[in-house]
Amino acid sequence: MRHYRLFMEALWRADRRRFMVVAVGVLATGLLPAVLMVASGRVIEAITGVVTGDQDSARRGLMAVAWFVVFSLLMAGARWMTATAQAGLSQRLLAWVEDRLATAVLGPATVAHLEDPAVMAEIDAASEASRENVYYWALRGFVQSSTVRLTGVVSAVVLLALSWWAPLLLVAGYAGLLVAYVRWEQVSADDLSETIATSRRRSEYYRELLAEPAAAKEVRIFGLAGWLDFRFGSVWLAAMEAVWRRRGRVQRLLTLGTLGLVAVHVVVVGGLAHAALAGTISVAAVAVFVQAIAGMDGLISAQYDSLGVAKAGTALARLRTLSTRLEQSSAAPVEDADPGPCAVELRDVTFHYPGSKRAILDHLDLRVEPGSSLAIVGVNGAGKSTLTKLLAGLYRPDSGAVLVDGKPADPAGGRVAAVFQSFGRYELSLRDNVTLGAPGIDDREVEKALGLAGAARLGATLDTPLAAAYDGGTDLSGGQWQRVALARALVAVERGAGLLILDEPTASLDVRAEIELFEQFLEVTRGVTTILVSHRLSSVRHADRIVLLDGAHVVEDGTHEELMTAGGGYATMFTLQASRFAVGVADAG
């Protein structure tokens, strides 16, 4: 019943007007068949009377036929009205569910939930229903099952007026089969369980790789097609075997219940045939009797039609659980911030990734003055990218505080612009890729930002889609995409962002191009608090300050000259990189 309640609540919230139209249509199409049964019985009774010479039978027959036609037309109209409203309601329901899911996923200010396997399993289970059109089939099944259930109940009342024992015996037969169908509903709902959803997500990943353009070259060069196909099949079969075992047990119950119901029908129809041959019931009564039995049989098909409601209800329950869980970490209302460069401070910050005991940052203290530039360096795995995500408000520390202008870091505040290693590559126009989050910006500002980012000569107009799959579209190289991402950050700075974070944004560029671009960026963004991360130390030497991360702590802090003079870890790393670069230049020459 909980599944039905959740499904009804979702339909009501999605579109109340269409829901009411569907409800009225179900009532009409469920009740009118019983009226048609009685009318058809009267028609047959009148025909029999005419044959036997009853003078009034013709008049009664014409009246019965007229009523039969009227109610048939009403039935057709009710069905058309229900189908039309149902089509619109299913679309509104899907839109409502997708909106709820998007709201839940986008609600938290951080991205930590998107890196949590348990949350991702819940998201996938909740969205799988949309991918498989579960809500469409659930609504269709609900309308059909509700209609035939109502017809079945009214048919039982009609049948009870003709023979008290027949409907009772049929109900007993239906009850046995109903138990099996309820169990089948539970098994069908379990198909959306977290474990199965996770396995399906893994199998879908293998299948998508077979057609993924980015992986197409390696799939062919390394001959991965057969391996990926095998992995898809094995993971998918492993997920489905448990489902098939449960379904097999329930199918045996369904078989036994069906055989029992067949036996009940044999008894009821046999009794009807005996009464008809004995002349204890009329031909008209026999016709109504047969129609009523058929109407009651709809109670079983109704249970089958409503299986989709169980699946939809389970998906809605998961969506509600997901929404409740993510609401606890949703972003607080954004307060207006003062324009200008941001002051950034980390106070005793400790951070672990979920499920890991190793502290990425351990009781870290750091302050960045407004309008200054800070470079964060260190070996791979030192926590540089983690620190930038904390500064951007995308992660929350386990303890301590990350403050931007004295308030907890919040990516929704419009004060942070960032380019991360894994920046977005959007299949949109060049203009849209640069102006995301800043609608209405002038094309001259877009072109200026592209020029400052070194992306003025991409061979694309502002209206060109950045994907070859679209008409007139084009693909960009990795370095070109990075320049587009940098232009996007510059637009955000122009629109008021006071903190700019650049986390390895130019990894696809050569050393000289990266140095030139970083120096240009530091000049262009002078007066904006800027955080730079790069594994190439020569690219960040002109930052106002440089900190070296190691062992979850800041172990060195100062200007380039100060750190080189100190002769510590930074100086060693810089000298080593410089010597390798010199050797590379000499070899190239």
Describe the structure.
There is one protein chain. The protein is elongated. A 6-stranded mixed β-sheet has the order 6-7-8-3-9-10, with helices on both faces. A 4-stranded antiparallel β-sheet has the order 2-1-4-5, with helices on one face. It is of the alpha/beta class and 589 residues long. β4 (399-404) and β5 form a beta hairpin. The protein has helices at 2-14, 16-52, 57-106, 117-131, 134-162, 165-190, 194-211, 213-221, 225-278, 283-305, 307-327, 384-391, 430-435, 443-452, 478-494, 511-524, 560-566, 569-588, and strands at 344-352, 359-368, 373-377, 399-404, 407-408, 416-419, 499-503, 529-533, 545-550, 553-558. The model is unreliable at 583-589 (pLDDT under 50). α5 packs antiparallel against α10 (283-305), α5 (134-162) crosses α11 and α6 (165-190) runs parallel beside α10. The chain contains 18 helices and 10 strands.
